[in-house]
């Protein structure tokens, strides 16, 4: 089902050997930074710097051309001036290199349509899966492939995880990756695909659909070459994996700013909404929502829309309830067993209703009682766990309790933690153990609503077995 | 105009001397933490620990009662058990203490209405401005008053600034203060006012309206004792100072969760929206928006709705334009002079239109040219300055350029910076120099829209002199 060209992308993401064409001795040159990324980043395969004017760069023997290398080369990153690209690409083809990331700009994006056509012709002649030109490169945290030419203090690299992210814009892509790295969100593949001359967004979707390391696909799009094909491709994938899309240029003025591409998805924000919904795509309206919506899929899919809320701050419970109603979710009615259990285990001043306020002096033990009760309660489909780390009774052990509860994979557990450094520290721990954590009840409820609507879409094509064995509530 | 009781709040926020009643020798007791806050925090006035069973606490001579202190005492923080409160409050009255922060809980919030009535009676007899009971206390960064009993590693303290924040809920209030501290947002006063037995939200609004250090008032409300009075009070203030309100319990389910208070503002989310609008109140829908909307007032009020956008990432310009249209703002049309100047000064591949894309290799110098041009252009009322710190050409000097431009106080300059640690570091610098900085174009545009609608409200009651001397565009 996956085309040969798309299959060859394996060479880009998981190469055994890589050539850096345009590797430079000068520390501030792109070709130097990329080479250094592979060396310092701990890439385990062979690295071949290609530069006709150097013997050795950062301790590695340097070659004049990929054709001078005796061993096989799987993949190449090209960062030479635009005029030199056709020749080095031709050499890549002759060498049998399967995948290429072409960083160099100066092609169709500045009107050099001919130059780009020439590249496409060479790539197709040899069947090269070519990403770019005019792109920021690729990051695969697991294989330590990293062809992004920005230093890690400016642009952080995310840990290994299940989210793959493709971005047409290098700048937006870069800042989102940086954001993900800071938030502790794990990533499988990041691809800045630039002009999409050979490999386009549909090819990448296809590749990621069949990629075992990718659990969720996130895309930032401006123009799309073939809107219908994109929606058709997406629809096939969303039966199995969620796709979250932020489409820029949805407004009239925004579309003008994006200078609409030929054949691109056109129409109003409403038209997009409808088309995305039909294809089962989860639509993000803002940069923040891209990962807010993606990271919730670390949890098991919900089997119904009844949310149980646990909090140690009454006000946060009220805010959560406001947002729940706004997003059309249901406030779970705790079972009699749950109420009884909670009444017997919690202090008399804790109010045994939903939202369950454990009160400002709550400690980890109280959270444990509440979480276990709600995990058991058949009237609860999703647990929203609000933890205010500022309060007296709370320490780090509440994080372990939340992680253990989430590890049971019975019901989705979504956390809300609002605050400064101490809170952020614990948020990152929760995130790194797969408990999606939000800064406010409203951002969490928005994500839960998308999670639920994807679960509904998914259940049309797949038999869903609810881990806590209850019938669907909706 | 300000009542005597409200005037006495001065003693709470700027006392020359303070008694900590219930000061404890045990480090984990509330009465110890509060005493230590004053000592370690560098409170410049006299501090009197009150504890009948101690001679000395952390090096300070301890008194059995405030009546045993010979010198005048302006204010007291009370953290003794509920049963002991009436007596120590009586002693405060006899001593002539003007302001009291009553931390102790166990009154009307747990049904002890009689106990609370007794407190009110004593406070009124002596004319004490009493905050609480059942509250988290007060923070005044400038005078180093800090009666919040949570350690600073859990709950950060904000720097000195113009935002005052009142919160009915201690927990929500605490996490928002913590958030503000981390974001580098400056604060004049923080008040957790708890049960509002004596001093209520209207009294606090009145006090802050006449407080010179307070430029913007932010409030988190659940119930409101007297809705009409609140709106009337707010309306008088919003002619002069902006008020941003997050009202929890606006939904049906949320209101139930908040257990509606007698005489509280009732009605649907729509009813609130209308009432707030009429009173000139800026309504926040989420915790994030509370400060997103407040901090924009660090800038001069805008004289029109035409936004000029500068960016070094094309995609961010597109997203900003989408958000601008959604919020009903106008995309400025650059003047011919501006276009000419930019064409002559910027590289040929930079697109001289709005949004102005300085392109991925932009450096500080290019930002300086663009900022100066837009500050001069009479077609531009507001400048949205998008800086992606991940790119090659950007270093810290761009921050100085933005600050210098903002210091001219000609037009509002609003920044957008999205990313990880390096970006956050620069965001905090911008914020601390009064350049409001947002994580995404959409959150910035939402704030700009509120800023503009407040400017319209303000201009009805005040003559607005536009610093860049252009006629109003709207």
In short:
2 copies of one chain form a homodimer. With 474 residues, chain A is of the alpha/beta class. Chain A is 39% helix and 17% strand.
Features:
homodimer; about 475 residues; alpha/beta; Rossmann fold; 2 domains; seven-stranded mixed sheet; six-stranded parallel sheet; 20 strands; about 40% helix; about 15% strand; elongated; disordered C terminus
SSE layout and pairings?
The structure is a homodimer of 474-residue chains.
Chain A: H1 4-7, H2 10-13, E1 17-21, H3 30-41, E2 46-50, E3 56-57, E4 60-61, E5 75-78, H4 85-95, E6 99-102, H5 113-126, E7 129-131, E8 137-140, E9 145-146, E10 160-167, H6 170-183, E11 187-192, H7 201-210, E12 216-221, H8 227-238, E13 243-247, H9 252-257, H10 269-278, E14 282-284, H11 287-294, E15 306-311, H12 314-326, E16 330-331, H13 336-345, E17 356-357, H14 364-376, E18 382-386, H15 397-407, E19 413-416, H16 421-432, E20 437-438, H17 441-461
Parallel strand pairs in A: 1-2, 1-5, 5-6, 6-7, 10-11, 10-12, 12-13, 13-14, 15-16, 15-17, 15-18, 18-19, 19-20
Antiparallel strand pairs in A: 3-4, 8-9, 8-11
Helix pairs in contact in A: 4-5, 7-8, 11-17, 12-17, 13-14, 14-15
């Amino acid at each position: 089902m996956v085309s040969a060209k798309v299959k060859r992308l394996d060479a880009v993401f998981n190469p055994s050997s890589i050539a850096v064409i345009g590797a430079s001795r000068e520390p501030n040159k792109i070709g130097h930074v990329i080479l250094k990324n592979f060396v310092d980043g701990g890439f385990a395969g062979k690295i071949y710097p290609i530069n006709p004017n150097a013997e050795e760069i950062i301790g590695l023997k340097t070659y004049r051309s990929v054709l001078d290398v005796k061993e096989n080369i799987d993949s190449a990153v090209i960062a030479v001036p635009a005029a030199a690209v056709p020749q080095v690409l031709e050499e890549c083809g002759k060498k049998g290199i399967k995948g290429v990331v072409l960083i160099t700009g100066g092609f169709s994006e500045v009107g050099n349509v001919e130059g780009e056509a020439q590249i496409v012709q060479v790539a197709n002649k040899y069947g090269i899966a070519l990403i770019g030109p005019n792109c920021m490169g690729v990051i695969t945290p697991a294989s330590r492939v990293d062809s992004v030419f920005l230093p890690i203090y400016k642009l952080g690299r995310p840990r290994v995880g299940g989210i793959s992210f493709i971005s047409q814009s290098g700048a937006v892509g870069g800042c989102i990756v940086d954001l993900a790295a800071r938030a502790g969100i794990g990533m499988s593949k990041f691809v800045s695909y630039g002009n999409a001359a050979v490999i386009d967004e549909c090819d990448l979707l296809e590749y990621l659909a069949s990629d075992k390391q990718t659990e969720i696909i996130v895309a930032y799009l401006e123009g799309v070459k073939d809107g219908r094909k994109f929606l058709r491709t997406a629809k096939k994938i969303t039966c199995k994996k969620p796709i979250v899309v932020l489409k820029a240029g949805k407004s009239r003025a925004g579309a003008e700013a994006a200078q609409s591409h030929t054949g691109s998805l056109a129409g109003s924000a409403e038209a997009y909404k409808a088309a995305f919904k039909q294809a089962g795509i989860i639509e993000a309206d803002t940069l923040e929502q891209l990962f807010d919506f993606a990271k919730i899929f670390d949890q098991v899919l919900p089997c119904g829309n009844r949310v149980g809320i646990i909090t140690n701050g009454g006000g946060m419970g009220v805010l959560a309830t406001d947002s729940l109603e706004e997003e059309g979710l249901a406030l779970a009615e705790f079972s009699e067993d749950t109420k009884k259990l909670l009444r017997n285990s919690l202090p008399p001043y804790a109010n045994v209703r939903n939202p369950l306020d454990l009160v400002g002096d709550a400690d980890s033990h109280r959270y444990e009682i509440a979480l276990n009760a709600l995990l058991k309660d058949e009237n609860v489909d999703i647990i929203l766990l609000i933890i205010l780390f500022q309060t007296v009774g709370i320490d780090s052990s509440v994080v372990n309790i939340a992680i253990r509860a989430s590890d049971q994979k019975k019901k989705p557990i979504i956390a809300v933690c609002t605050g400064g450094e101490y809170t952020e520290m614990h948020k990152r721990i929760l995130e790194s153990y797969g408990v999606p954590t939000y800064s406010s009840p409203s951002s969490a409820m928005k994500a839960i609503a998308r999670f639920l609507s994807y679960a509904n879409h998914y259940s049309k094509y797949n038999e869903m077995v609810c881990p806590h064995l209850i019938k669907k509530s909706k």
